[in-house]
Amino acid sequence: MTKEIFYFLVFPGLLFAGVLGGFLSWFDRKITARVQFRQGPPLFQPLYDFVKLLAKETILPKYGSPLTFLLSPVFALAGATLAAVFILLPVLGIESGFSGDLLVIIYVLNIPSVTYIIGGLASGNPLAAVGSSREIKLILSYELPFLLVLTSIIIKSGMTINLREIIDVQIAQGANIGSLSGIFGFITILMCVQAKLGLVPFDMAEAEGEICDGIMIESSGSVLAIYKLVKYIMFLTLPALICGLFFSGLELSGINILWSILKVLLVVLLITLIRNTNPRVRIKQAMRFFWVWMNLFAVISIILSIIGV
Amino acid sequence: MKIEKFIEEVKQKYPESDIEVINQKRLMIKIPRGLLLKVTDYIFNVRELRYIIVSAMDSQDGYEIIYHYSDDASGWIINLNVLLPHNLPEVESITPVVYGAEWIEREIMDLLGITFLNHPKPERFLMAESWPEGEYPFRRKENKE
Amino acid sequence: MSKKILIDLAKFRVSQKGDFNYGECIYDFHPDNVGMKAVIERAMLRFTCRRCEDAPCIAICPEDALERDEEGIIDRATNLCVGCQSCVAVCPFGTLMNEIITAKKSICDLESCLKSESPLRCIETAPAGAIIVTEMEADHEQNIFQLDDHILVKEVRWEDLIKDE
Amino acid sequence: MGFKESCFKKSLWVYHLSAGSCNNCDIEILDCLTPRYDIERFGMKLVGSVRHADVLLVTGIVTKKTKPRVIEVYEQAPKPIVVIAIGACPCTGGIFASGYNFAGPLDKVIPVDLYIPGCPPKPEAMLAGIMKLLNK
Amino acid sequence: MVNFQMMIFFPMLAGIILFLIPETLKAVKGIITILISVYILYLAFSVFSAASGLYQMQCTIPYISSYLILNVDGLSKLIVIFLSLFSFLFALYSYGYLKGKQSVECYYSYYVITIGAAMGAALAENLLFFIFCWGILGLTLYKLIKGHNEESSSAAKKAFILIGGSDSILILGIGLIFKLTGTYNISAINISTSGALANAAFLCLLIAALTKAGAIPFHTWVPDYVEHAPASSSAFLPASLDKLLGIYLLARICIQLFSLTAWATMLLMIIGSLTIICAVMMALVQHNYKKLLGYHAVSQVGYMVTGLALGTPLGIAAGLFHLINHALYKGGLFLSAGSIEKQTGEEEIDNLGGLSKLMPLTFFSMLVFALSISGIPPFNGFYSKWMIYRGIIDFGSGPDLVNKLWILWLGLAVFGSVLTLASFIKLISGVFLGRFNQKFAKIKEVKFTMWLPQLILASLCIFFGVFAATAILPTLFNFAPISGAQNLDGLWQSPQVSILILISIVLGFVIYAIGNIGKHRREDSFIGGENIQDETNFAPSDFYKTITEFKLIAFFYNAARKKWFDIYYLGKGFILGLFNIFSACHTGILSTYLVWVAAGLAIILLILI
Amino acid sequence: MGKKTIIPIGPYHPLLEEPEFFKLYCDGETVVDMVWETGYNHRGIEKICESKTFEQVFYVVERICGICSTSHPFAYANAVESIPGIEIPLRAKYIRTLIGELERIHSHLLWVGLAGHFLGYNTVFMWAWKYREPVLDMFEMITGNRNSYAMFTIGGVRRDIDSERAGKLFKVLDEAEKKINLLIGAVMDDPVIHARLKGVGTLTAKDIHDFGAVGPTARASGVDIDVRRDDPYAAYDLVNWKVITAQAGDVFAKAEVRLLEMLESIKIIRQCLDFLQKNPEGEIKAKVREIPAGIGIGHAEAPRGEVFHFVKSDGGNSPIRHKIRAPSYTCIPTFRRSCIGGTISDAAIATAAVDPCYCCTERMSQAYDFRTGKKLYNAADLIRLSQQKTEEIKKQLHKR
Ligand code: SF4
Ligand code: SF4
Ligand code: SF4
Ligand code: SF4
Ligand code: SF4
Ligand code: SF4
Ligand code: SF4
Ligand code: SF4
Questions:
Q1: Which subunits sit against A, judged by 3+ Cβ pairs under 8 A?
Q2: What percent of chain B is modeled with pLDDT above 70?
């Protein structure tokens, strides 16, 4: 049990993912700034933000459900950390996953979004409700392609639903991204991750210009701090998942560590570039995009992987 | 030139009106207030001049309301001038004819206390909720009740 | 028709300290309009000003607002004047007064005021005797001069003072 | 405590509140975000909800109609909050002080921590002002 | 030796006796009912600990006794124990719920009769005895709704006709089985679904099971029923008992009575997937929360059907586990819905809001149920769904077309689960979160007898989720065809995960403590400074408007609104059409009808023999 | 139907630089009605103007709004100068034109940036604003200030542009033009922007006439009006340029008009600088000693459309009535036609499409939506709903 608790709290869970995710979110902001000809924030900005938010006053909603409002970030944190543990353990090769863990991951990855929604709704703010409604619709849209990509990977890896085994197959046969089906899958999952992270063009749940930060409108102080932490963790976890599924995992030994960092940075870079070269789309457009195009891509990827390309 | 024809036509149709070129390319047509809707309809719908705005002021002779229209083809600005006596600040609303005049009429209503008859939504709207009733910032002191 | 007002420049001073009261005005198209100020300015420039040769006021005016007309009377272009009152400071004879040389021009709509039945607001509010309605004509003996059709000014002219000396 | 303080200074999130301005100050504030001035260097960013704000940038005169709203927003902001009056308008009323709809300078309405006069103040002036406040 | 008579016939008898007690003594009846259900629960435990095997019920009438053989095996034990558990909980709830409420006549009588009949159906070895009990259930279903409100009688009629119809088809099926095998004893039957007659028998039984369980396309009675029935009836019958029995029958069909061939599997898979998706799509746009729950009651059946159809031990275990889980949370959901309805008198989601502060216990349990049904770990719904998914993926390595389509099944199942989540978010937010309506400011939490069952069910949901692998599956699901259904290895040991979640909750509060949460303040929502919070709102029913704006989807919704997919109306249309044809034969003389009826019966008999 | 969703936007909302309040009545994400309330920004400028001298009024109207801080003085100058009928020096005309066009570029860039910001496309925002900086630099070089230039005066301008500075300006302009071309390309060719803007918030020429909308809003709907050409002032009849129009009337057309107008502006600025460089000497101000009594009406084409000033003088040195009509005043009411039927996201961008700034609209006003949603909502939905209902009832009757 102590081992699990260590996994959970320190490595590769809360502490590790939080710190590294914070770094990645700094990286994202920095790249964004560079794309926009700006200098960008200092390295420790995520830390400053987090600590500052902790020190701030927290405002609870007068109506709605304050307890739920307080609890949802906590559950978001739990979900995100669990996801981090489940994904990072096999991806980093610390411990092999368990049979069927990919399916668990799908669910666990949804916990943060769901808690955002519940938290947003608990605040009783109509704008947050609009945001929540958009977020849930977004989940509806990206969930299916996300699953289909995973099945494509599962097929490619010989019907195993174990993340570590998938990585092992890749190590043996070459990374999934190297194949045609892998490329299609990669594009799809990149978009899904974009949406999961709530970044432009799929940030309509928090659309600042439309509904004042939507879901997050009422969060302040510590509540927002935890949400931030969750976002940091997700910022590491999801790219790591992509690396695991398409770039044959991350190795932590010797020179491979550099490769691993490069892989993660590459994925984050791609995400950042996408978010900086697109306007936010309408929720309906996003749904159509995922339901039609991304599903199509995912199905192509599946067909290709059945053929074995 | 077109504008001369326009002046001719207005003179013919509405002999009561008093037409004056105030300065270059600016035309002032003074009309009695009973004629307002007809002339407006003629100018806005028949001649298809572009509605600009309505100005109103509290002058010595009464409340002067000036409707500005623009003839974009020639660059002339046509102004309809209606004078309301101080003791009867009422005039027909032109909003039913000119869709866009609704705001400004209400603004005038608010600032100068002029009643627009048949206005679709003659609601009182003041700058702030706390603004006192019956106070019109643009009325001159002597006309303030 | 020949109803006029007579203004007595000296009487506008309220106290020894030099406070002036130019009365109130019913012409309220401009906020704080005191029509009498405009009248007094014209009267001052016409009857009090010494018409210096190298008029320091003209020289000092940063905006070139002061000019002499054909009669040599100083004329202030209110559209140019910024009310810096350099001219007030520089006038060696104290002709110009700072309450009057302001950036904002006041307007006196005397004609309509005279037409109306009610008494003039400026007369009621200015110091007693400073403004009176009269039908008299200009009378140099009594230092009463004609400014225009409707205004008479009572002022001791500097020419006369010099003569006295 | 010291660390928290310094974090606060290094991560100021700004909420912009226009109380009846002429846009000039507002666009100059936005200018601060843009590449030439880039306040993100100092960890500042513009946020969409007052709940996230550490700084309220108030521009414009407080009109009779905005006064209750300004107070409302101020009260909704999580404390500690820094209120900065940007431009002559909120400092004194500026050119509009004589208007009939002017409800008093900002400091009569909510407590103000920093005044940055100018009409409009240049972005440099705003940055300098904020830096001064932070290094106080 | 268990006293089976007491278990089956005593409640029926008691129910009849209860008819004699006047309605004014409703409270007394309620207490009697609770006592009976406690007793049954006790008996059920003794059944559970009894050895498996066939039991002959003692009966003095020799002719009947040959039918009264009972089959106690793992499956029926499982069903019985939960049947009795739910009977108890819902009886407890009914007591509070029906108090001071004008409602169904002789509710408790039928309630008690239902218990007995359900026990009989679950334990019956002989198919005829089974039909007897099964038929009683259809009748009490009808009786437990009638008279609740104005529209309830038409809903009751609809339910009765569909259930009754399926019952007659069941009779036909059983006849066919008898023709094929020559026996009515379940444990002696095993038919392969090849050959026309076997297939017909299979279909007949299938229709009966699916109708009872409420799967597409025989589901339409469920939403209508739950909309108009008292919540306790909805929780009792469509949500738990009927589901338990319907799926029980299906399980019997799949495991025992028939050995499925590929086409049958395919059929079941299609039915399962369609049920999941279509019903949940309908649920998504409901405005009435009871109806919304009704559609979910349908949708979840899809998972069970899918699980059972897989035919693998894992799949069947998953299907059955999901059945139990479903009964737990859906029963709970109906109870919560009933509490809300009782306290507010509102059934429209849009008119509610912000009740979480006023009814915290109901809110908590409803949230647990909602998260369970949406399959959020670590609640129970997640575990069984996850088993089903794994079952599907394993199933994918099979040779047939139906195996090859595993991605489709998986995709639809997962997608359905997300849609479920979506519609529950709407429900929870619409009812409990958001701003509360001043109209409801005086509302209080429900009485003890009502919240207790809710909380018990909620804690069972959590318990079943957390200890699924360690406690539940090994004890309850460890019988013949499914014993040893795979366990999870690795880190996902639910207890551990739960501990981790607990830790992170503690951690969250530590963070809150570090951050000065103590300095919190409560403020009205921020909507840009304008003080009109009371006016602004977001109507939850608009949540998924965007989805219905897509043309294709809009088409289906319109079709559904026009009842194109409602078998009841289709059937009615069909019969009306037939009626026109036969109206030529309409003479108005009773004997003519009798001739027709007799002819019909003769045809049926011909087929049977 | 249950509750209707009511979404408040404002008064303090990141979408709006200024306080403004819209209440969107929504059906799901679709906006079915819109009520709006203004007056937050009402500073009583028209009244303040009456207490200022003609000269001072320039600095007040400049602060009607900082974005059009030339257009208002421009129109005001046209109005006041028309009372005595002064012809201003040629050089002053060119300088005025130059500043007016520079402002157009700065304002359109600002709009592009903000529109990008509303769309969540912060890169466009940053880029547009970055490229706007050189324009502001040019302002600083010419007038000494980045905004609120205080450049105009009655009878001319207050600062000259010598040929040395003109040369520098040329360089900056070339630089800016390159960037602007880049940006135009980036925005006009982006498929996602197309998807987001095309067909959104469409206005017909009829709508434009009804509301009296002006500027790019009108020109994007094919209404070919432009004060600079129709009633030329300053040096607009002396330089060579053309009016940009588009036909579609949607947000994209408005963006297109604005983007292409920048290029025209650059053309005009070139010609002005050319003139200033070739004729380095000259008066920049005509002396106007008094403004006689009379009525002055002036208008000018601001970046957002026609600015209209009406000045009445009584021979004093301040106006006795100063009526200001800014373009947004007639453009903003068009939201009622452009937002309804779109989604909330569209409402945001359709609102932005007019490039609204309430400052000027509100110097005087406070308004509500008047055709309450009833008509709009009833016509579209209620009739359909009631028809459906009747049909259902009929069917049910039939069945029995
Ligand atoms: S005469 Fe009339 S206008 Fe002139 S100062 Fe006196 S009151 Fe004013
Ligand atoms: S007050 Fe006027 S006239 Fe006198 S010096 Fe100054 S600007 Fe010239
Ligand atoms: S009053 Fe104004 S114009 Fe005159 S010197 Fe002072 S600042 Fe300059
Ligand atoms: S006296 Fe004073 S105010 Fe006057 S010029 Fe000298 S320093 Fe300035
Ligand atoms: S300096 Fe004085 S006295 Fe001399 S001209 Fe000027 S105003 Fe007259
Ligand atoms: S910024 Fe300049 S003009 Fe404004 S108050 Fe300060 S010194 Fe005066
Ligand atoms: S201080 Fe000046 S620039 Fe700023 S808002 Fe006020 S008037 Fe505009
Ligand atoms: S149209 Fe806009 S930018 Fe122009 S003056 Fe008005 S508010 Fe300012």
A1: D, E, F
A2: 86
Distance separating alpha carbons of residues F288 and A302, to the nearest angstrom: 81
Token pair in block for residue B128: 């702030």
Domains of chain F: 45-331 (1.10.645.10), 367-400 (no CATH)
Amino acid at E415: F
Q: Which residue has the tokens 């991204």?
A: A177
Q: Which residues contact E543 (CB under 8 A, 6 or more apart)?
A: A133, A136, E422, E425, E426, E429, F28
Ligand 3 binding residues, C-beta < 6 A:
C 82, 84
Structural domain boundaries of chain E? 260-517+537-558, 567-608
In this prediction, residue F340 carries a pLDDT of: 63
Handedness of CA A158, A161, A166, A169 (dihedral sign): negative
- pLDDT tens-digit readout, F133-165: 888 878 887 777 777 777 788 888 877 777 777
Interface predicted TM-score (ipTM) of this complex, two decimals: 0.73
A39 touches chain F (CB under 8 A): no
Determine the distance separating the centroid of ligand 7 and the alpha carbon of F52, expressed in angstroms.
17
Cβ pair A86, A100 in contact under 8 A: no
Q: For the CA atoms of chain A, what is the radius of gyration? A: 19
Please answer yes or no on whether A278 and F116 come within 8 Å at the CB atom. no
Give DSSP secondary structure letters for E114-150: HHHHHHHHHHB-BHHHHHHHHHHHHHHHHHTTTTSST
Residue D14 per-residue DSSP state: E
Q: Are D23 and F358 in contact (CB under 8 A)?
A: no
Instruction: Say how many C-beta atoms besides its own lie within 10 A of residue E211's C-beta.
Output: 28
**Spatial CB neighbours of E159, under 8 Å, sequence gap ≥ 6:** E141, E142, E145, E221, E224, E225
For a mutational test of ligand 2's pocket, the pick from C86, C90, C95, i.e. the residue with the most ligand atoms closer than 8 A to its C-beta, is C86
Supply φ then ψ for residue F151, to 5 degrees: -100, -25
On average, the pLDDT of chain E sits at 72
pLDDT score for F387: 45
- CATH of the domain spanning B3-140, picked from 1.10.10.920, 3.30.10.20, 3.40.50.970, 3.30.460.80: 3.30.460.80
Retrieve residue C160's tokens.
């006369």
So where are chain D's domains? 16-134
| Helix ranges (DSSP H) in D17-119 | 24-33, 66-76, 88-92
Phi-psi region of B95 (alpha: psi -120 to 50; beta: other; left: phi over 0): alpha
The residue ranges of chain C whose pLDDT is under 50 are: none
d(CA A75, CA E525): 23
Find chain C residues with C-beta within 8 A of F55's C-beta.
Answer: 79-80, 82
3-state helix, strand, coil split of chain F in percent (to 5) is 50, 15, 35
Q: In this structure, which amino acid lies at residue F344?
A: I
- Per-residue pLDDT tens, chain D, 136 aa: give them: 577 777 777 778 888 887 777 777 777 887 787 777 877 777 787 777 777 888 888 887 877 777 777 887 887 788 788 888 888 878 777 777 777 777 777 777 788 888 888 778 888 888 888 887 777 6
CA C95 to ligand 4 center in whole angstroms: 19
From D66, D91, D95, the mutation candidate for ligand 7 (largest count of ligand atoms within 8 A of CB) is: D95
Q: Which residue in the block uniquely carries the two structure tokens 């003479």?
A: E587
Residue B133 near residue B109 (C-beta atoms within 8 A)? no
| Cβ neighbours for E15, distance < 8 A, ≥ 6 positions apart | E108, E109, E110, E111, E112, E113, E116
Q: What is the pLDDT of residues A179-207, one digit of tens each?
A: 777 788 888 888 888 888 877 777 766 76
* Domain D16-134 falls under CATH 3.40.50.2300: no
Q: How confident is the model at residue D66, as a pLDDT? A: 75
**Cβ–Cβ under 8 Å, residues E214 and E243:** yes
Contacts with B137 from chain D: Cβ below 8 Å: 100
Cβ-based contacts of D80 with chain A (< 8 Å): 56-57
